[in-house]
Design brief:
single chain; 74 residues; 434 Repressor (Amino-terminal Domain)
Length: 74
């Protein structure tokens, strides 16, 4: 699977598990709603810094966004 698609799927799954809208998640992560939308659709290639910001907003480790099967919220 493409890494962009994998990260996007993991972000979406973890965001929905926390009942966060894209808009609210964008606020928490400091990113735009459009960026979050593009990311979840595999259209963005996040930097290491962005992965850290996404993981922090979700309360998970950055590695949890990279793994197949998605990791766990900690």
């Amino acid at each position: 699977m493409d890494m962009r698609a994998l990260v996007g799927q993991n972000v979406k799954r973890l965001r929905l598990a926390q009942n966060l809208t894209q808009e609210r998640f964008a606020e928490l992560s400091g990113l735009s709603q459009q960026y979050v939308s593009d990311l979840e659709r595999g259209r963005r290639n996040p930097t290491v810094v962005t992965l850290f910001e996404l993981a922090t907003a979700l309360g998970v480790r950055p590695a949890d966004l990279l793994g197949e099967g998605g990791g766990s919220s900690s």
